[in-house]
Amino acid sequence: xxxxxxxxxxxxxxxxxxxxxxxxxxxxxxxxxxVVNVGLPAIMSAFGIGISTAEWVITAYMITMTVxxxxxxxFADRFGNKRIYILGLALFTLGxxxxxxxxxxxxxxxxxALQGVGSGIIQKEWKSPAxxxxxxxxxxxxxxxxxxxxxxxxxxxSPTNHDGWASPTVIGCFAVAAVALAYFVxxxxxxxxxxxxxxxxxxxxxxVSMAVLTLFSIGMLGGTYLLPLYxxxxxxxxxxxxxxxxxxxxxxxxxxSAVSGYLTRxxxxxxxxxxxxxxxxxxxWLASRFTLHTTHRHILFVLYIRGLGMGLTFAPLNFFxxxxxxxxxxxxxxxxxxxxxxxxxxxxxxxLTAVYSARTxxxxxxxxxxxxxxxxxxxxxxxxxVTWLTLAAGLPLLWVFRKKRxxxxxxxxxxxxxxxxx
Length: 422
What we know:
There is one protein chain. With 422 residues, this protein is an all-alpha fold. Helix content is 78%, strand content 0%. The chain is built from 16 helices and no strands. Helix 9 (204-234) packs antiparallel against helix 15, helix 11 runs antiparallel to helix 12 and helix 11 packs antiparallel against helix 14 (371-392). The longest helix is centred in the last third of the chain and has 37 residues, at 330-366.
């Protein structure tokens, strides 16, 4: 007689329950990033901390998640996908509970790091079933690089660092981080079973797409970090009001992602991606013109453009990046893409915090205005930097267009048709 567990596993609905659980866990892990971005000003007020400390509430999560994304697959192969997934959910839930009970900022940052470990396990890269030893050297190298690089970027403009970027601590952290990154790349290229298959970046479509994604993610995640600060600290929005502003953006992005994926049948994917990048850059340029008197309707309009840009970019870029890869490489490619997005986002947040801090100090020293005005000017200056970084994401696409044009022989329409496939 079959037990209840066996009966459930043999039912037709079992696979849908599994899919639902995976989707729910992934949704919560992704949602957590946006929730904390929106709630960051309230966290700063509750714990009485500045932006240079508050950024670690976000980056601690992203660092540990990035480290675990390519690593957890190895453990799943050894101990079972279900066990490791449940472990990830348990760690994520425990970290979330500890965040809610945090008595201080350092405790909260530690709980966020634990959340990131769980999130990385939930969204892990699926490895090959072939048995390989764990790449400890690559793991240690990337685990050193990320926190040291972020710490150096955050420490450079810290109010307690009187030496600024010339501080021996900052220079030392940058140096060690650079060595760790170089060692990681060297190890991954030589290892038979690396954490990340960096060799895939040698494939033109995939390599170009990852270059675009790196710069695009700095802008996308950096904007998500800066705009709630502007709305709450500058305009006096509550966290609930700021969060409700972002809700339609997600819906627009979701719908347009499906539409843009369909459009790749008729329009060159790189043209769609380029249009999305231009729309996102336009939204950031408009946001960099925000003031204390910007209306709610205008903010919504700018964010709708942002949603259109993101929705128009991701599906075509993903289609282009995977076009020449084999089915065997798909999981490894997804692991690289997810890791690059989180790495770029965490580095971008650190860079933009440094820009914001420096520009706020500049305006406070040279202008006689209110604290809110100084705050808004610092945020909008940082959004101006985001605009240029987002535009720079289009440069690899221009390189592809130019190379294809050079390779197209004059008077050969067949070759022109082949070149136009991208």
